[in-house]
């Protein structure tokens, strides 16, 4: 009965989404199918432990060969979406989407988590480097001034979700990053340690693919996997030049949600 319910749901999902596979595409058929099945998991709000449709159901629904269905499901197993148990079947492993605000009134990702145990932030790289001409111009630095670069890995409930690269004027923030940030927050550290209160942040989001192997390894995803690329600048009050330029690589499975209230006059 459980299998029948899932099979009907999968058929309905494929029909509603017009999820047709193309043999003419340069993208392998099994990978196309794995992406469709992943969206099925997300859209049906399947939870860890829920039974996933069988290979036979997938074959029937999409008209593919059994090896193609097997490889598509194995792709999701390898990426941590599914778990195969011998003699029992295939089950959902990954949790639903993580929803974050792209910005909040405290301008900090760490501030979104009242239970700080849910969010872990690890500095995986920190060094003082020479800045490119574009970065020098953006941060208002002279030719001989350097920038502090550090890379952080963000985990939520132990799972990697984001790699964040930050660039700040090295002379302005000596010693930054040598110790853990206060409460896991860069901005709280800038304010309390350096007397630098953040006034505003600008952020933009674009769809992209991961092309840097080091980032892919940290996020535990294959190279060229789809990601959200988050870029932005951070300002203190009454300044023209930002004090930080950041680039964040956000793993698939994270959604940004903002609410805008209309001002009624």
Helix/sheet category? alpha+beta
Supply the CATH superfamily name of the largest domain.
Answer: Chorismate lyase-like
Helix-strand pattern: HHHHEEEEHEEHEHEEE
Give the biggest beta sheet: 6 strands, antiparallel
CATH architecture of the largest domain: 3-Layer(aba) Sandwich
What's the CATH topology name of the largest domain?
Chorismate lyase
Domain count, please report it: 2
Spatial ordering of strands, largest sheet = 4-5-6-9-8-7
Description:
This protein has 265 residues and is α+β, with helices and mostly antiparallel strands. It has 2 domains: 2-92, Winged helix-like DNA-binding domain superfamily/Winged helix DNA-binding domain (Arc Repressor Mutant, subunit A, Orthogonal Bundle); 98-256, 3-Layer(aba) Sandwich (Chorismate lyase), CATH 3.40.1410. 28% of the residues lie in helices and 30% in strands. The chain has 7 helices and 10 strands. It has helices spanning 2-17, 29-43, 55-62, 66-78, 133-139, 186-194, 213-219; strands at 82-85, 89-92, 98-100, 119-130, 146-156, 159-169, 198-209, 226-236, 244-251, 254-256. The strands form 3 sheets. A 6-stranded antiparallel sheet has the order 4-5-6-9-8-7. Strands 1-2 form a two-stranded antiparallel sheet. A two-stranded parallel ribbon has the order 3-10. Strand 8 and strand 9 form a beta hairpin. The longest helix has 16 residues, at 2-17. The termini are far apart. The relative contact order is 0.11. The model has no long low-confidence stretch (mean pLDDT 84).
């Amino acid at each position: 009965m459980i299998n029948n319910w899932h099979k009907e749901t999968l058929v309905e999902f494929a029909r509603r989404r017009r999820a047709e596979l193309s043999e003419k595409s340069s993208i392998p058929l099994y990978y196309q199918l794995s992406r469709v099945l992943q969206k099925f998991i997300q859209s049906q709000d399947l939870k860890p432990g829920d039974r996933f449709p069988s290979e036979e159901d997938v074959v029937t629904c999409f008209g593919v060969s059994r090896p193609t269905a097997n490889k598509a499901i194995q792709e999701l197993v390898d990426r941590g979406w599914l778990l195969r148990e011998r003699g029992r079947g295939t089950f959902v492993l990954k949790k639903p989407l993580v929803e974050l605000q792209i910005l909040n009134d405290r301008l900090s990702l760490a501030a979104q988590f009242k239970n700080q145990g849910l969010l872990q932030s690890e500095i995986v790289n920190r060094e003082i480097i020479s800045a490119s001409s574009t970065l020098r111009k953006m941060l208002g630095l002279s030719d001989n001034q350097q920038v502090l670069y550090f890379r952080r890995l963000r985990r939520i409930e132990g799972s990697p979700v984001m790699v964040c690269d930050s660039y700040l004027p090295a002379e302005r923030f000596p010693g930054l990053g040598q110790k853990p940030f206060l409460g896991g927050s860069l901005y709280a550290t800038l304010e309390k340690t350096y007397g630098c209160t953040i006034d505003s942040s600008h952020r933009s989001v674009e769809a992209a693919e991961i092309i840097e192997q080091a980032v892919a390894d940290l996020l535990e995803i294959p190279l060229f996997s789809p990601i959200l690329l988050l870029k932005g600048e951070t300002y203190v009050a009454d300044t023209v030049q930002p004090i930080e330029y950041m680039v964040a690589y956000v793993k698939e499975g994270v959604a940004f949600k903002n609410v805008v209230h209309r001002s009624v006059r």
